[in-house]
Design a protein that fits this description.
Belongs to the sirtuin family. Class U subfamily. NAD-dependent protein deacetylase which modulates the activities of several enzymes which are inactive in their acetylated form. It comes from Fusicatenibacter saccharivorans. This is NAD-dependent protein deacetylase. Its cofactor is Zn(2+). This protein is about 35% helix and about 15% strand. The longest helix is centred in the N-terminal third of the chain and has 14 residues. The protein has two domains: about 150 residues, 3-Layer(aba) Sandwich (Rossmann fold), CATH 3.40.50.1220; about 80 residues, SIR2/SIRT2 'Small Domain', CATH 3.30.1600. By secondary structure, the chain is of the alpha/beta class. The strands form two sheets. A six-stranded parallel β-sheet has the order 3-2-1-7-8-9, sandwiched between helices. A three-stranded antiparallel β-sheet has the order 5-4-6. Strand 2, helix 7 and strand 3 form a beta-alpha-beta unit.
Amino acid sequence: MEEERKIEELQRLIDTHENIVFFGGAGVSTESGIPDFRSVDGLYHQKYDVPPETILSHSYFLRYPEKFYAFYRDKMLPVGAKPNAAHKKLAELEAAGKLKAVVTQNIDGLHQAAGSKVVYELHGSTHRNYCMKCGASCDTELVRRSSGVPRCEKCGGMIKPDVVLYEESLNEKVLDGAIRSIAAADLLIVGGTSLAVYPAAGLLQYFRGDALVLINKGATPMDKNADLLIQQPIGQVLGSIKVR
C-alpha cells in the first residue's frame, strides 16, 4: 500500500505541474537491455582486464584505439535495444506540453527513439561519430561493421564516437541548456541514477522548484532531499502514470 500511495502522489504532482524536467541515468535504459556500470551484470563484471573507466578514457582511446574499439563495439553498441515504458511515458508527457526537457547521462539515443524532442545528452551519443582529422560525420553502422580502428571514408582519419570520455569536458552548450531547464522547472523528476557521476549529478543544485522526485532502485546521496522517494524500477513506475 505504501508504494501505491507513492505512485498516487507522483500522479498528483505530475497533474498539478506544467514545467516538468526529467533527469536520468543508466537505470532508465537497463529495462531496455542496456547494462549500466555498477549493477551486478553491468560493465564492471566483464571479461576485460582493464576497468571500464580506463578503457573509456581519452588517454586510453588515443594510446590504444584498437583495444578501445574492441570494448566499445562489444559493450557500448547494443543491437536491437528499444525504448521502454519510461522512455515512452516521458515522450508522452512532452507531447502533452507538461515535460519541458529530458536531461540524460545516457548515450543510447532511446529517448529520441521514443519521440522525445528536447533532450540534453550530457555524455554525448553513440549515434554520432566524427573524423578527428577532417571533422566529417560518420555513420554508426560503419563503426559497428569495421574491424580495428574505423577510418574516415573521405580522408582516412581516425573516427571518434561523439561521446564524452573520462578526462574530457562536457559540451558547454548542452550543459548550459540542461542547467537552464533544471533551473526553470517547477517539478524535477530524477530517475535511474545513483547520482554518483560528476559533474552531471551536480546539476541538481540548480533546481529551485516546488518538488523533487527521486525514482531509483538503490539509495542515492540525495534521498534525504527528495519530496517523494520511490525505490522501484523506473519503467514500472512511469508506466503506471496517466498523461492528462
